[in-house]
Every structure is written in C-alpha cells, then in structure tokens.
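Progress note, project year one: complex with magnesium ion.
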Amino acid sequence: MLSIEQVAQAFRSLKFNNLASSLEGLLKQAEKQQVSYLQFAASLAEKELALRQERRLLLNKRKAEFPGVKRLEEFDFQHQTTITKRQINQLLDFQFIDNRENIVFIGPPGVGKTHLAIALGIGAIEAGYSVFFTSMLALNESLELAEMKGQLKKRLSEFGKYDLIIIDELGYLPFNQQSNFNFFQLIHSLYEFRSIIMTTNKEFSHWNEFFSDQNVAVPTIDRIIHHAQIFMMGGESYRLKNNLQQQRLNNTVG
Ligand code: ADP
Ligand code: MG
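Model obtained:
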C-alpha cells in the first residue's frame, strides 16, 4: 500500500519540500471537497508556488539588510506636508526601477527620508524586485575593505545584482581620498544599470563639500542626478515632535 509518507518523500527528492509537508492536508481537503483530478493537480502546483514565493520574499527582505521595518501606511502625511501621498504613491508602480532612475530625498534630520526609503524598498521587494540597503558610512567601510583586499571590482559587481540600492545618509561624514574614488566607481557601475534611492541632509549646492576631490565630485553627482526624481523635504523633525509632545505631557502632569 502506498503511504502518504512515501509520496511526501518522493516530493522531497524532487525538492518540492513545501508540498511534501502539506500533502496530507491537501489530500484531506481534496477528498472532502470532491475536487476533480485536474483541480487537485492545480492545487498542488499553486501551493508549491505560493510557498516558494513567500520564502523568496522573506529571504529578499533579509538580504536587503534594512535597519528596521518602516511602512508607508505608518507614514503621517499630515505631519510631513512637503511631500504628498500622491507623489509617493506614483512611485509604487516601481517604473523608476524598470527605467533605472534614481530617487533622492533631501532634507534636514528627522523629516522621514529614511522611513520613506525603507518603505519604498520593502514595497519593491513585495513587487518582486531585489533591494539592498546600506548607510553611506557602512558602504564606505565595505568598499574600503574590499579595495584593501584587492576585491573592489568583485564587490562592485555584487551591488549590480540588486535592482535597487538604497544609500542612506550621504553627507554626514566627508569622504577621504580613497572613498571619493570608491564611491565614484560604484555610482559609475550602477549608472543607467540599476536604481538608487539616496537620502541626504545636504542640498545639491553643498554636495561637493563632502568630496575631498572635486575632480571626482562632479562626475559622481552628475550620474546620481541625471535620471533622478528629487524630493526636497522640510518641516519639523518627527523625533522632535514626539519629544515635544512628551515634554508638554510631562509639564502638564508635573
Ligand atoms: P530622516 O531620515 O529624515 O532623518 P527618519 O525617516 O529616520 O528621518 O525619521 C525619524 C523617525 O521618525 C523614524 O522613526 C520615522 O519612522 C519617524 N517618522 C518621520 N517622519 C514621519 C512621518 N511623517 N510619519 C510617521 N513617522 C515618521
Ligand atoms: Mg535618515
């Protein structure tokens, strides 16, 4: 007599691991609902596909190395009025990724640049794109390390495997001579090939200040903003807003 376990084992050897573990339930359900053979075959395929897709999303989210989870639904557009929900929503068809365009969020600290960048990144993964998040600081360190090991080219090509690279906080620290060059190489290799979302607290006119080498600054900046949608954000820091509310609360209580 053929047992469920034997069939499950056969599925496992075909690498249909998800199916193998849900076979018993699917069989019971099919018997109960008296579905046709064709319907049953379809339900097996659907189950495996759905579980693989779910696993791929989870894996891609982990590989993206987001510093936390931020969602657009949590973003308060009543607080942040220098960018509209409509402007962000129009990015959610992710055509900017298909067109290899960049997005730049410029604004003072706490206004939601990183929040929006992460939320768009998570949305892109859910739409089937691969994403990598890095702070500018970590990026510099990683490129510097690769360069020291003579592996800069290899490291750069790893970035090219993602559809979207998020580079957070350009301009908090100035580049040293080598990182000017490393960063230029990265931007050059991604230009018109992959999309970048970049956040920065500095306006364009000051961007050259964090490059110590002006010969590298101009072509790097050029390539970032050539096909880019640029959002200038302002307003009060959300962190400060919460603190102020807390203080007011404390004052009332105290
Ligand atoms: P920035 O990158 O511009 O310095 P962040 O995106 O890190 O700012 O925002 C700081 C904190 O405030 C984060 O926890 C973020 O989730 C939250 N935040 C900022 N703006 C908003 C907003 N408009 N609605 C909800 N949360 C916000
Ligand atoms: Mg930030």
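Residues 4-63 form one domain.
The chain has a mean pLDDT of 93.
No further modelling is planned for this target in the current period.
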